[in-house]
Amino acid sequence: xxxxxxxxxxxxxxxxxxxxxxxxxxxxxxxxxxxxxxxxxxxxxxxxxxxxxxxxxxxxxxxxxxxxxxxxxxxxxxxxxxxxxxxxxxxxxxxxxxxxxxxxxxxxxxxxxxxxxxxxxxxxxxxxxxxxxxxxxxxxxxxxxxxxxxxxxxxxxxxxxxxxxxxxxxxxxxxxxxxxxxxxxxxxxxxxxxxxxxxxxxxxxxxxxxxxxxxxxxxxxxxxxxxxxxxxxxxxxxxxxxxxxxxxxxxxxxxxxxxxxxxxxxxxxxxxxxxxxxxxxxxxxxxxxxxxxxxxxxx
Length: 299
Ligand SMILES: [Zn+2]
Hints:
alpha/beta; Nucleotidyltransferase, domain 5; 5-stranded mixed beta sheet
């Protein structure tokens, strides 16, 4: 029996919310998933994480952190931050959280890993995940491994998709994929279409549910922008499956989008699906990565 085996305390840290739960080495969630608002400054984030970890210290064998921002290849620190986190968050000393091993991974990578090990991309050695939130994170499984690049920062959605310096992206450049395919982008699309600066992406979703034609048009055009980037990336990486992840992806039409992608790509058809684990994917993936690290260290 494995019932008394130790667990991994997993966090998913985003710009607006921090979620955490106990997860076992097989990726099963064994506690409630608790959600709190992300504190506004980085010292407070660290203090909050420390307080939570101390409550679990004797039940756990590791801490796993899925976070916004690009994470080092050694899974120990953030090497590049994202616009919606506090400024000094990048320097958070995650190792201080616990006397046990602390493993950090980018949230899109962690979600991709969960889907690859247990979810919609299980058994597929080449897969891609597009995580749509305030920003966009992209993650690739290539030959059964997460694509990390030379430093760990692979999969940034900052490649130019238009000319003319129309939209300023969070990274400082103009007209990146992210500023056309993110939740933020849907909000900008809505403000432009409604000619009203108070309209947000939430109003578009609400309008869609009420069959409002303008809302549907705005959403469809945004969806096409999301798909245009996917077509390019599929041509480059040739995955078996593309997964979409994030709350807005609940409203997307996968059958329609899969047809559009498969009509335009050069390679053999792909599957386009929503990630199975949805909101918990990043925590589960980070826990699985931590479990593998512990096993390797024990050997
Ligand atoms: Zn950018």
